Amino acid sequence: MGDVLRIVLKRLGLGLVTLFVISIIIFGAVEMLPGDVAQAVLGQGATEENVKAIREQLGLDRPAPVRYLEWLQGAVTGDFGKSLISQTPVAEAIGPRFGNTLFLAIYAAVIAVPVAIILGVLVALFRNSVFDRVTNVLALTSISSPEFFLGYILILFLAVKTGYFPAIAKLSPGMSFADKLHATFLPALTMVLVVVAHMMRMTRAAIINLLSSPYIEMARLKGVPPWRVIVKHALPNSWAPIINVVALNLAYLITGVVLVEVVFVYPGIGQMLVDSVTKRDFPVVQACCLIFAATFILLNLAADVGAILTNPRLRHPK
Question: How far apart are CA 255 and CA 295, in angstroms?
């Protein structure tokens, strides 16, 4: 247990250092964006005196390192400042949007994870069969297709031609849970098609890699049925790489939803990020990017911990 705790604390410390470096990159990248924020807030007809006044009001006349340290100090306490456009606290504006993104990610994960594991077991069981080849071709096609392309294809066939689902994932405060699931089905399905193929192929590879192990050969010699060999012997010992790839894909479901949310006009944090970049609302852009980075690092840490807990050999690094 002590070795596990030591490894987890080491990974957590590395994650914090990584997040600190990313925060510097985020702030620096936003600073290098072309144009003047004050000019964008006031419009093209603003006078030079008004632009100067708004820059002083927003604190843009101070050195960048000073503004970065103030922003980092506030971010640690959950205070990302105020939006330059709406003048409302950024945390209050992001909260509901991030909740919507989490809902969409969990919706897609609930579908994708069991489907991917079941398909991975089946293609490993019927390896080199027609079913295996067809499934792998479809998986590679799904992986190779951009999210926006899959989204537009689903809109064409499931919204425009049939009308089964709405083309725009519009949410309202009074919606029932069932209506919310129906309204967000197409963006969730788009994300499922992207991640399920990757998880399925990794599950298949992890199981097939274990099929040449001595204990698997012994089970076969004893006459154990092929499905039982895979489900009872190979699958439990392949959980470490499967958990790792599942956690990484969950990170993608949260941090890689920007294109999907834009295609379906979904009111999540990805859509908010795009809108804020367009409006040059820097505090919102910085907060969204930092939240994405923190979520990705946290889920990567969860993947490492899951792999350590399911693989005793990783608990005693040399």
Answer: 7
- Among residues 60, 59, 42, 61, which one has the least CA distance to residue 51? 42
pLDDT of residue 314: 60
Q: For residue 82, which phi and psi values (nearest 5 degrees)?
A: -115, 150
CB atoms within 10 A of CB 206: 21
Contact yes or no for 58/84 (Cβ under 8 A): yes
Low-confidence ranges of the chain (pLDDT < 50): none
Q: What is the pLDDT of residue 316?
A: 58
Residues 47 and 306: beta-carbon distance below 8 Å: no
Tracing tokens 């006044």 back to the chain, one arrives at 53
**250 contacts: CB under 8 Å, gap ≥ 6:** 105, 109, 299
Write down the pTM of the prediction. 0.83
Buried b (16+ CB within 10 A) or exposed e, 72-84: eebbeeeebbbbb
Which DSSP category does 256 fall into? S
Q: Which domains does the chain have, with CATH numbers?
A: 96-272 (1.10.3720.10)
Structure tokens at 298: 């946290």
Supply the DSSP symbol for 127.
Answer: T
> What span, in angstroms and rounded, lies between the C-alpha atoms of 216 and 234?
7
Closest CA to 94 of 271, 280, 288, 251: 288
The most distant pair of C-alpha atoms in the chain lies apart, rounded to whole Å, by 87
Any residues with CB less than 8 A from the CB of 134 and at least 6 apart, and which?
Answer: none
Q: Is 318 helix (H, G, I), strand (E, B) or coil?
A: coil
* Tens-place pLDDT, residues 225-265: 877 877 777 777 777 777 778 888 888 888 778 889 999 99
CA distances from 213 to 122, 193, 210, 216, 293 (A): 19, 32, 5, 5, 39
Q: What is the pLDDT of residue 241?
A: 76
Note the pLDDT tens digit of each residue in 207-217: 888 777 787 77
